[in-house]
Design goal:
Length: 362
């Protein structure tokens, strides 16, 4: 039985990431056909999106990640830090523009206190109780724990109490610690990232999971990353009382401008699409694969819907992190444009909420 067949029968648990990386040796059409069949079985021609707004309170960061172009540094000498009132103003404007989700992710600003974060969340939920609040990556949770010494479990419990509805998937990067020590030394460890999400799921909450690829990592590192996520999802599902888990897996394509990695070889379109297809094949217990248009570009994200992906993310309205590194995503997309692109590609556009309840079909 070949590797692909074993993967499809979920019979690959005895295979190492190195062995499973041979999935990349299949031609693009074979992987695409298999992944598309899996996504079609679940979702037909549906492509999901949401009406959301990204707010990034600050780019002043205590950590120094070599891949990051967003945080204030020699390559980005424009530090800023928003006040709670400024964030609330943006939140109100986003809601008036149709946003149903606020996605709040920040740099690790040493000037923001523990109390500041939770006052922010309470004020947002007080002002806009109907808006889904997605906030704090596991890297931020770990940082807040470090500055407060309260323990990550207390941080997560306080997030629930303050009204945070779900967590984004950022900070995962690549779980292999040798890679992490080079690209983001000092940031949350892979073990702690997984522990944070597992505890959050145990509180009955949903989150996403990302993977930053296309830099110094190898194919087997990507496979290892996916398998660790699958294992956490499986462990979570064993406890019947838990309602939390991973909503979606989001392969984030590394953006090469304005950072300190100096990567010369960028992944080909085929390498990108194979990665998405393999994710759909291996991650049978994570329902959604998101082709995040802000890193892939709109055209590639649309094509990825034929290779196992079934989600595009959303309107975003304003995107600061990926665009700082060269992505063409600064101004977001209008809802009409997103729907038009999905429909023109032969799919059915489904507007969703943040946990994938279907709101409208186009």
């Amino acid at each position: 039985m070949d590797i692909l067949q074993k993967a499809l029968e979920y019979n690959e648990s005895s295979l190492s990431p190195q062995e499973l990386s041979k999935l990349y040796e299949y031609d693009i059409f074979t992987l695409g056909k298999v992944a598309n069949k899996l996504r079609t079985k679940r979702y037909g021609k549906k492509v999901f999106f949401n009406n959301n707004r990204h707010i990034n309170p600050s780019n002043i960061c205590a950590d120094v990640c070599k891949f990051c172009a967003f945080s204030a540094s020699r390559k980005n000498p424009n530090p800023y830090a928003m006040s709670i009132d400024e964030i609330l103003t943006q939140a109100h404007k986003a809601y008036e523009n149709g946003a149903k989700e606020l996605h709040i992710v920040s740099a690790h600003n040493p000037n923001y206190t523990y109390e500041w974060y939770f006052e922010l969340f309470r004020e947002i939920k007080k002002a806009l109780p109907q808006v889904h609040l997605k906030a704090l990556t596991a890297a931020e949770v770990d940082y807040i724990d470090r500055i407060s010494n309260k323990g990550y479990k207390k941080v997560l419990e306080d997030m629930v109490e303050a009204g945070v509805d779900s967590m984004p998937g950022g900070g995962a990067e690549i779980f292999d610690e040798s890679v992490r020590s080079y690209i983001c030394k000092g940031k949350v460890s892979s073990k702690r990232w997984l522990e944070i999400h597992a505890y959050w799921h145990g509180l009955g909450k949903m989150s996403n999971a990302t993977m930053l690829f296309g830099h110094i990592e190898k194919r087997e590192h990507r496979i290892d990353h996916m398998l660790r996520l699958r294992e956490i999802q499986s462990e979570d599902s064993k406890v019947a009382s838990k309602n939390g888990g991973f909503n979606a897996f989001i392969p984030l394509l590394y953006q090469k401008e304005n950072n300190f990695l100096n990567i010369k070889d960028f992944p080909s379109g085929q390498e990108i699409l194979k990665t998405i297809a393999i994710a759909r094949i291996l991650l049978h217990n994570i329902p959604h694969i998101k082709a995040y248009w802000a890193t892939l570009g709109l055209n590639m994200a649309i094509v990825a819907q034929e290779f196992g992906a079934n989600d595009m993310d959303g309107t975003i309205q304003l995107e600061s992190i990926q665009s700082a590194a060269g992505a063409k995503s600064k101004g977001g997309l209008s809802k009409d444009e997103l729907i038009s692109q999905i429909k023109d590609a032969g799919f059915v556009a489904i507007e969703r909420d943040s946990i994938y309840n279907e709101l409208a079909e186009y």
